[in-house]
Design goal:
The protein is mostly helical. The chain has one domain. 32% of the residues lie in helices and 5% in strands. The protein is built from 9 helices and 2 strands. The chain has a two-stranded antiparallel sheet. Helix 3 runs antiparallel to helix 4. It is globular, with a radius of gyration of 20 Å. The two termini are 29 Å apart.
Length: 225
């Protein structure tokens, strides 16, 4: 099942709709809440130091900025996630996950890129490690891969493969129907600009390291090594 990533197409009469926002509620709020509710705690001991992982997003500031947002369920989900870490929907016991024995070939060809990335993440406080052998036996170790960034020579995108090994991966323990979506198209963006009329402006932006700055809850911390 696929849904558009964005706002519900049905407008109402709130301030957001009067400002031209297509709708005041997100079409995937219910799925996010369901995903969080399906997450189960790991039966293994919690990884030491989890509380020391840093997140640059301040929950209180987000709560203040979203004070008049009409989708209160979505706002509560965001603020709670920033406070406690987001639940990824992994159901412990639903799959027998196995750690990867090696990285992808692209990572082996460029080991310095991987080392530099890990050093940068450790310095920023976004990851833990290195861990001792006892802790390593209690977590799912996922393999790394590298993909060159388009039109940026010498720049790489790090891939943490949560779908390997097939049948025993982290993603195999997450319900796909709650996570499947596709992003809106350029055609859809053009239609909305035309509908708003002359003088409408369209902006596109990218948040650097967006996924790496989103905190995850410690109850599924064993899945993300």
């Amino acid at each position: 099942m696929q849904r558009l990533c964005g706002l519900s197409p049905t407008p109402c009469h709130c301030v957001f709709c009067r400002l031209g926002v297509p709708s005041c509620s997100y079409s995937y709020t219910a799925d996010l809440l369901m995903l969080a509710s399906r997450t189960t705690s790991s039966p293994l001991p919690a990884v030491d130091g989890w509380s020391h992982i840093q997140c640059p997003m301040v929950p209180e500031l987000w709560e203040e900025c979203l004070a008049i947002h009409p989708d209160r369920a979505y706002v509560d989900f965001l603020v709670q996630g920033l406070h406690e870490g987001f639940r990824i929907g992994f159901r412990h016991g639903s799959v027998s996950y196995h750690s990867a024995a090696s990285n992808m070939q692209s990572a082996d060809v460029h080991p310095d890129v991987i080392k530099d990335f890990l050093a940068s993440e450790l310095s920023a406080g976004r990851v833990l490690g290195p861990v001792d052998s006892d802790t390593a036996r209690c977590v799912q170790v996922n393999r790394f891969g590298l993909v060159p960034k388009g039109h940026q020579p010498g720049k790489w995108r790090l891939i943490v493969d949560l779908s390997f090994p097939k049948g025993h991966s982290v993603n195999d323990g997450i319900e796909p129907e709650l996570c499947s979506l596709h992003y809106t198209s350029v055609d859809e963006a053009c239609k909305r600009v035309i509908a708003r009329g002359r003088g409408t402006m369209l902006a596109k932006f990218d948040v650097e390291g967006a996924f790496r700055t989103v905190p995850s809850t410690r109850v599924t911390g064993d899945c993300l090594a």
